[in-house]
Automatic annotation (TrEMBL):
Keywords: Membrane, Transmembrane, Transmembrane helix. This is RND transporter. Residues 198-268, 340-364 are annotated as: Disordered. GO terms for molecular function: efflux transmembrane transporter activity. Residues 198-225 have a biased composition (Polar residues). The chain crosses the membrane at residues 6-25.
Length: 364
């Protein structure tokens, strides 16, 4: 009986010893595997910057009834008509305008100059006469012909008063106007391509950033208020030359504003106007759009970087390559300048013993 008990105890002891040995072996093997097992970070582009905007024509020109050109007769175009640059839009009776008088003044100034070629005053008077004639001809062209290709919108074609708008020319080239926050200003630049989607129709297209304002919208509002009204088109009175000079002097006023203040509180984020042109599809003026600016910036977590800006890149065979990259810091974040591309797999928290060519296990 005693002998049987001893055998049972021996068998149990042997089983326990084998179990302990198995645990030790398993732990040793597991530790060895864990030493070579790493979590992985896959590089990707940052999410695109999104903005909301509205479509608008690149230019809208108003054609006013200009009595200095002549007596208004009628329009040569109809509402909604497409026109080309240089196409006549309005008919005037120019028989009574002052152009003949301006031509006579040029001839008289030329004759005076011929008689006294060395007289500086005759040279000045001749230039003055030519300038008045050229200004008048430019004014006539500006009042009659299309300055750019576009679509006609008739405003008042039935006996408009002097200075009243007859029609408007809306350019065929659409653009998108939007704003960007100061926090996202560094994500856009002139010439960068964007994607857009028309909210009402779902149509999609592309465009290009044409302009980013230097001043925030709050400053621009203040500057526009301080600059006052713009000078209107100069008209020829009894003395057409004097009328042109007076208009030119008025238009030549270029105000300077010092110590400009922006609207809003000091804690308010500034916004900057952005203009997007070269649209791949025409968009009707006034339509609202969502604008997306693709990003090609790759942000890196600190867990993949080692001293000297080295990272460990994993290939398809799970072998690593120790690679030095260039980074730049923006807003406290680290971004890839060169050395990596989208989709690269990087070792997180690499151990100091890891070296190029080592094969690793990727944590599930």
């Amino acid at each position: 009986m005693k002998r049987k008990t001893i055998w049972i105890i021996s068998i149990i002891a042997a089983i326990l010893v084998l179990f302990i040995i198995a645990l030790v072996v398993k732990k040793t093997s597991g530790d060895s595997d864990n030493k070579n097992t790493y979590e992985v970070y896959k590089t990707k582009y940052e999410s695109p910057l999104t903005m909301q905007g509205k479509a608008s024509p690149y230019s809208v020109k108003s054609y006013l009834n200009n009595s200095s050109v002549g007596n208004y007769l009628y329009t040569l175009v109809s509402d909604g008509q497409k026109v080309e640059k240089g196409q006549p839009l309005i008919s005037y009776d120019t028989s009574g305008n002052s152009r003949e008088d301006l031509v006579n003044k040029v001839n008289q100034a030329q004759q005076a100059r011929n008689k006294a070629p060395n007289d500086d005053n005759t040279f000045t008077q001749l230039n003055k006469a030519y300038k008045a004639l050229n200004d008048f001809d430019n004014q006539v062209n500006d009042s009659i012909y299309a300055s750019f290709p576009g679509t006609i919108q008739i405003v008042q074609s039935d006996q408009p008063n002097d200075g009243q708008t007859i029609l408007q020319l809306v350019s065929n080239e659409p653009q998108i106007k939007t704003t960007v926050s100061e926090y996202d200003l560094n994500k856009i630049k002139k010439g960068k391509e964007v994607d857009f989607k028309v909210n009402s129709t779902g149509e999609k297209g592309t465009g290009q950033i044409k302009q980013v304002s230097e001043l925030p919208t709050s400053y621009e509002d203040n500057l526009q208020g301080d600059s006052g009204g713009s000078a209107g088109m100069p008209g020829a009175g009894d003395d057409a030359g004097e009328g042109q000079e007076g208009g030119a002097a008025s238009q030549a006023s270029n105000p300077v504003v010092n110590d400009v203040d922006g609207k809003g509180g000091s804690s308010d984020a500034s916004k900057y106007n952005v203009v997007i042109s070269n649209l791949s599809k025409p968009v009707r003026a006034g339509f609202s759009l969502d604008v997306s600016v693709p990003s090609h910036a790759i942000k890196l977590p600190s867990s993949v970087l080692t001293k000297g800006n080295y990272v460990y890149v994993i290939d398809k065979h799970n072998k690593v390559e120790k690679r030095q990259i260039k980074i730049e810091e923006r807003d406290g974040q680290k971004y890839v300048k060169s050395g990596l591309k989208e989709g690269d797999k990087l070792v997180k928290h690499p151990k100091s013993s890891l070296k190029s060519g080592d094969k690793i296990e990727v944590a599930k």
